[in-house]
Here is the input.
Amino acid sequence: MTDWVGQAYERYAASLYRYAAIVLADPVEAGDVVHQVFAALLRHGRCDVDALAHYLRRAVRNECYTRLRRRVRLPPCDGRLLELVAPPDDPAVRVAIERALGALPPEQREVVHLKVFEGCTFQEIADLVGESINTVASRYRYALDKLRELL
Amino acid sequence: MTDAELEALLGRYRPVGPGTGLRRRLLVSRVTQWLPAAVAFVLAALLYLSASTQRLYIGARLPAMPPITLAPQPEAMQQP
Here is the structure.
């Protein structure tokens, strides 16, 4: 893949995959979502790679929530959800964080991901998810409270 | 645990990235996207070649026909 789809994949796929993995709490299904979005992009035809960021994020988000609505129950998170970026590594802590994140509602996981892992501001998150900044901040507050309780 | 400590703890990790399998899947889907069209083209080309070969084969086996000459019609000859 050396053409525009390859460029789009190189630039956005990893970030989109991480986002989907956290929202769905399932790395395997996150792969399906990202694949589906890029396959749709291929069918759509040539696009300006620089202008795709917002479109792809929206498409992945919509697909994630569509799949979440169809879910009967939350699947057990068998796959590893997190990887270490700053030592020291403690597998028990990592597993505890993964379980705690998995126990949060998807909307709260999404806000935690965008705030903590992607470093977005509440305003940026509010723009992305289409909610007010107060709603987003509340979700983050509830998520931190629950994580603190679970860890 | 304060918010800052919790954020620092979370910040030591990040979500796992996609494996190489995802890229391969996309590549395969790109190929399969054009597969029906490619198969249809190959079938059409094979059919055309087969028909051309048959035409040449039949043409080669038929005996050469004598040239056709048009005889004048009797009605045309009777007119003044």
Notes: The two ends of chain B are 124 Å apart (CA to CA). The interface with chain A takes residues 1, 3, 6-7, 9-19, 21-23, 25-27, 29-30, 33 of chain B (CB under 8 Å). The beta strands of chain B are 13-15.
